[in-house]
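Example record

One chain of 102 residues, shown exactly as stored in the release files.
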Amino acid sequence: MMNWTYVMDETSLPEGKMIPVSLPGVNAVLARIGHAVYAVSGKCLHKKCPMFNGTLEAYTITCPCNGWQYDIRSGKFIDAPGLCLEIYPTKSEAGSVFVNFQ
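Predicted structure tokens for this chain:
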């Protein structure tokens, strides 16, 4: 069963931008690309740098500390797809964005 958590209004997340989300025990980054909203772990796998301070180009999120790049749709590290950021399901409903952090 999905446990959806309201995180923001859709209008708070502009196209091509990232927003950090922190809840007890969860640090994530949300991004809107096209009509889709993606949510991944907010910390790089290498040195735990905050991914929110990185860059987003198309579907690639780049760590600000070491340049590691991940596909925001799958969380996969571009150079070694066996390494992945945790991803979280999202949905938009009635102008609100929800994430399942379970």
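Notes: The longest strand covers residues 26-33.
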